[in-house]
Amino acid sequence: MLRQYTELEIENIAWELLRRKPKVRACLPIDVDLLLELQGISLVVVAGLIPRFSIECCAYQLHPNGEVIVAIEKFIADSRSEPSYRQILAKVLGHLTLHKEVLDQTGSIEDYLALRSSPAWPHMEHDAHRFAVSLMAPEELVAQAAAPLYAQLITEQGFGELRAIEQQLRNCLATTFLVTTEQIHQRMVRWPCQIYQRVRKSVSLGSPQLLPLDSGQVAQHQRRLFLSGRES
């Protein structure tokens, strides 16, 4: 039976993976290619995945030696923007991390295609996407990066239009973490980062420093997410 993950669990799993790889965590943006290598996963560039199989990337395990292969379309590797390329790899790594028991049964591209046709695939994709964003823009590192960037924006521009401050901070963070503006936007909106809420609180209080949210509210929201996942 496919395991059901809460948002809190996915956040923790992604961070634990990075915590065990200090070499990857030490430099931004997170080096997804290096992380795959350190996990013992072989990345191969394959021409024709899209025209032949209608997929950009896939993962499977070679039997009997157990080598895990991630194959990515050559056109994607050569031409896609860096944030998009990284997101594709991080999502496949999410599948390999969250759904290892299922992926262990795939021994070829054809097996991976069959898995994509299963009823469980949409839920697996949702969790893998959430993992990818959590991995590329970890909450702790996003918070660390956002604070000095916010302070710099206020120092240089003052407390101008709130929306402009939010957009500039979003763009700076997207560049820092080498993700799309949409990905970092979702990170800034949602738990656990909630950077926009912190910006609004800081601007409303006229603070040149990025203020934290009320710890009680954060803990309550964290618990609600955890319990809602358990009850679903």
Can you describe this structure?
This protein is mainly α. It has 2 domains: 7-136, Arc Repressor Mutant, subunit A, CATH 1.10.10; 139-231, no CATH class. Helices cover 65% and strands 7% of the residues. The chain is built from 14 helices and 3 strands. Strands 1-3-2 form a 3-stranded mixed beta sheet. A hairpin with a 6-residue loop joins strand 2 and strand 3. Helix 6 packs across helix 9. The longest helix is centred in the middle third of the chain and has 19 residues, at 139-157. The radius of gyration is 19 Å and the shape is elongated. It starts with 6 loop residues before the first helix and ends with a helix. Residues 221-232 have low confidence and may be disordered.
Question: Top keywords for this entry?
Answer:
232 residues, mainly alpha, Arc Repressor Mutant, subunit A, 2 domains, 3-stranded mixed beta sheet, 14 helices, 3 strands, elongated, disordered C terminus
Per DSSP, the total helix count is 14
What is the molecular shape?
elongated
Distance between the termini: 15 Å
With strands numbered from the N-terminus, the spatial order across the biggest sheet is: 1-3-2
User: How would a crystallographer describe the biggest sheet?
Assistant: 3 strands, mixed
Reading the helices and strands in chain order gives HHHEHEEHHHHHHHHHH
Structural class: mainly alpha
